[in-house]
Write a structure and sequence with these properties.
heterotetramer; A: mainly alpha; 9 helices; B: alpha/beta; Rossmann fold; 2 domains; six-stranded mixed β-sheet; binds adenosine-5'-diphosphate; binds magnesium ion; Dihydroxyacetone kinase DhaL subunit (chains A, D); transferase (chains A, D); kinase (chains A, D)
Chain lengths: 209, 330, 330, 209
């Protein structure tokens, strides 16, 4: 399966649905170590992404992701708005104007997303953020793609990687975002941003399956 | 959850309609969610913009007016505003002498204000940002996102606003704002967490004999849980933390702030303890605020902010201010 | 019960210490429990005294100052002050032109103020009393102790205070106070009862989907229990009661008051609904107050007070006032 | 037993102890249909009565009751302060300067107390107030005393009468005091002021027993 504008749109649509379905869980993760708005933020942000895509009707997968990112930045607020917004925008830009991206190109786009988040937020692996889900996801995706594996297999590996990364955030002490204010009390909980990253990558895997 | 609302989705829109109707001195842009002065920006004066998540009322919209903010950008409950919105506030505040962004130190606020400043730059509005981070409860190290901006933000807005009204230029106003932030420390204790309308239940649960020590302003848990104690002890604990971080001495401005669900009669009692503590440590409370100035929805508890005063800061604090929530001298 | 207090016994004394320290414009007599203006009574002007149980802060002590009260006598929590205390307040308020007692209509307040007026008469201070009874929730019949004095008391204190400051004589000031009371109606709904410190638990219990309709300001149950509803409906219900009792029309002064535990963001939303209702009924909200002005400790809920405005009342309302809780024009 | 200054003082002492012991019950009765302060009010008021008696060291029972009444008025506040304060003061005045009052004289003093409360508060029997406890108490006291019965028997009858009067307030709808604001919802509860009256008269019965 190719990653074209339609697939990219289907991805954002599926991600929005997944986040909406799990909004309460994301919120309660955030209530435990943050301020309890991550579910609402992501639901609002991805809905805005869809609206923006619908309004612009982009014809390339890159433009779909740029439109999604702009929608997210414009409506989400909070830490996740700029971070996810920039991530999608940079991923879209990385795809250039190709009408249909290969697995390797999608892998490069995901890597660009990760770089955007790290640059903007200054977080590294181990800081208990979305970076901890996205880093292993990107690595797993690229490993499959580098071996010539198909998009579906790469995306499935990425989703698994993100979920493992999410699980790995539980014992971490947060060093970025609101959870860092809790110091040692942040230990023992999943990071909400890592949880939404896992949902978004699982949505990709399901869409390209 | 019982709240005086129509639905969790309409809280901000409804409150903004109410602010617009209650305060003819404000212009409330319901679409962009910007609160600015009805008379527009003062030409030739530095504009002040602040913003952040809603739920902290009267912060920030209640501080828009003569001698304080030019415009405010209220986000969703406990969620920073978005760049376009901050840009709109920045334009509403621009009187040709540049705009100061007063940003509380939270990742979301910092990132969204940064993006807005870039957008403003594209439109040739000069923006300088000051990030407030007065919360002594949080360690300021590379192991945290830094200290949170809390009660001291009110002092920054008032004093920088007075400087702007006097005609100081952007860098001077920014310098004063940074200075106020540097000489201010705050600490907060909660008895019962507030409830975010969309979440529907309190941010944390406390037993009948527990308090949350070192909370922020977003219903987030504090650094540790403690035992309930007389207000004398809770105030003493708070001021010990503040004092250890930055000695409380000389003339100080003190705010005993309610978190939204604690009544004024209790805040006055807390203030009495704060004054006794400070005088016992050789300081003098030269100016004060007691009341709900930076809240966390219906959270029960208090915060204390202490700022070192000098003659300049005192003059700027005493300068006339005319906003819905802070008013004197005119 | 968790409260920011030292002990239930010390609540009033601690709060008075805090008020004394926070407001140099006030003279706080800790022994007699009298709050008066630091500058003393204004010679040749009618003095205004009010008082009642504590727990309603900023009422009454927060309204002592230029253009409003001369002195206040705060009783124990929810308990009227005692005659000697009211006498001391009356003497502190006396500038030689007589003293107006503004008494909320509760048996205890009425009796204790009546005794105090007799004591004042013995000391040749002329006292006239005005009893406020603006609560539309209570039937005014021989089957009740009459209507309660609630939010309208704030209007009476402000407007009568302005008249006194202008130099009106005692009978004129009393006449204006009575008139304000007559053209004002209030109604309140509670979501969660406040807790009297000495009692240690809320005055009544409500289920998650229940509200108490027509409550007073003392954590007492209302006339009936209702179902929780959107604020649009709760405000509509309140204004329907008020309107049925005294038609809401023309220019009005509206206060949407918080009971102490409800956050400002909700009160603004409630005010937006009130304005929409009133405009929908052909009235116009010419002036307003939104915030915690007459509270019931940490009770959650709101009250609405509506007063018909005429030119005189508008002028007196707009006249300068300088008190801890209400301040404009100077 | 004679009603002299010592007995009068013992009465107020016992009343104070009884109210203090039952403070929580009085408060919760008041919370149900009033504002939840009656226990605290009565405890404060009777403590002030004792202080005032101790300070003035009155030598007649009349002066003891006048001192009690003044102490109550000066410190209680609320509706009960002026009402009970005037009641004790008027009862004391009714005793004149006798050093030792007879049962009939005490009965007249209790009647004066009732009259004071009715005049000041304007309540009648059936309005669900302390009047509903005091009225049958005074009647029972006077009936025994009129038959030449001893003080102990009269006081015991008064205490019984007050307790019956208290019980009779349960089905009443309040027409005076705060409870009247509740309208029909005031039905089904004991009146707190009637409850404190019953305690005070029981204290008398025990002291003169
Ligand atoms: N500096 C950062 N770098 C990367 N991710 C971050 C950073 N700060 C916060 N996050 C992520 O954002 C998530 C919280 O997002 P959200 O709750 O929507 O915003 P806010 O913290 O402003 O309420 C965290 O769980 C974390 O994964
Ligand atoms: N007008 C009245 N006449 C007689 N007794 C009254 C009257 N009003 C109130 N009371 C009595 O006072 C009691 C309440 O006293 P308390 O709670 O101390 O005062 P408050 O009502 O001011 O809080 C009532 O239970 C009732 O018995
Ligand atoms: Mg969050
Ligand atoms: Mg947030
Ligand atoms: Mg009372
Ligand atoms: Mg009572």
């Amino acid at each position: 399966m190719a990653f074209d504008a339609q697939t990219a749109t289907a991805w954002i649509t599926a991600a929005e649905a997944a986040v909406k379905a799990d909004e309460a869980r994301l919120t309660s993760l955030d209530a435990a170590i943050g301020d309890g708005d991550h579910g609402a933020n992501m639901a609002r942000g991805l809905a805005a992404a869809l609206t923006n895509i619908a309004e612009r009707a982009p014809s390339t997968p890159g433009d779909v992701l740029v439109a999604a990112g702009r929608g997210i930045v414009a409506k989400t607020g909070g830490a996740s708005g700029p971070l996810y917004g920039s991530a999608f925008r940079r991923a879209g830009k990385a795809l250039g104007d190709t009408a249909s991206a290969s697995a390797e190109e999608v892998g490069a786009a995901l890597e660009a997303a990760l770089t955007a988040i790290k640059e903007l937020g200054g977080a590294n692996e181990g800081d208990k953020t979305m970076v901890d889900a996205l880093t292993p996801a990107v690595a797993a995706f690229q490993a499959v793609a580098a071996d010539g594996g198909p998009l579906a297999a790469a995306a499935a590996a990425a989703a698994d990687g993100a979920e493992q990364g999410l699980a790995a955030t539980v014992p971490m002490q947060a060093r970025k975002g609101r959870a860092s204010y809790l110091g040692p009390r942040s230990v023992g909980h999943e990071d909400p941003g890592a949880a939404s990253t896992a949902l978004i990558l699982r949505a990709l895997a399901e869409v390209v399956q | 959850m019982k709240k005086l609302i129509n639905s969790p989705d309409s809280v901000i829109a409804d409150a903004l309609r109410g602010m617009a109707a209650a305060h003819p001195s404000l212009a409330v842009d319901l679409e962009n969610r910007v609160i600015s002065r009805a008379g527009g920006a003062t030409q030739g004066r530095v504009g002040l913009v602040s913003g952040g998540g809603s739920g902290h009322e009267p912060l920030h919209g209640g501080y828009v007016g003569y001698g304080m903010l030019s415009a405010a950008a209220p986000g969703e409950v406990y969620t920073s505003p978005v760049p376009d919105q901050i840009l709109a506030a920045t334009k509403a505040a621009d009187g040709g002498a540049g705009v100061l962004h007063i940003v509380k130190n939270y990742t979301g606020d910092v990132l969204n204000f940064r993006m807005a400043a870039e957008l403003a730059d594209d439109e040739d509005v000069r923006v300088v940002s000051v990030v407030t981070n007065d919360d002594a409860a949080v360690e300021d190290s590379t192991y945290t996102a830094g200290r949170r901006g809390v009660g001291g933000t009110v002092f920054v807005e008032k004093i920088a606003g007075a400087a702007a009204e006097e005609g100081a230029d952007l860098d001077t106003v920014a310098g004063i704002a940074s200075h106020v932030n540097e000489v201010t420390r705050s600490f907060a204790i909660a008895l019962h967490a507030g409830t975010v309308p969309a979440a529907g239940k309190p941010g944390f649960d406390l037993a009948d004999d527990e308090v949350e020590l070192g909370v922020g302003i977003h219903g987030e848990p504090g650094r540790e849980r403690g035992k309930m104690a007389p207000i004398h002890d809770l105030v003493g604990y708070s001021l010990d933390v503040i004092h250890a971080d930055r000695p409380v001495s000389g003339d100080v401005l003190v705010m005993v702030n309610g978190q939204g669900g604690s009544p004024l009669i209790e805040l006055y009692g807390a203030f009495a303890e704060a004054v006794a503590w400070i005088e016992g440590h050789g300081g003098r409370v030269a100016r004060s605020l007691v009341g709900n100035y930076i809240t966390s929805l219906d959270q029960q508890g208090f915060s204390i902010s202490v700022m070192s005063l000098d003659d300049d800061l005192l003059r700027l604090w005493d300068a006339p201010v005319e906003t819905p929530a802070l008013r004197w001298g005119r």
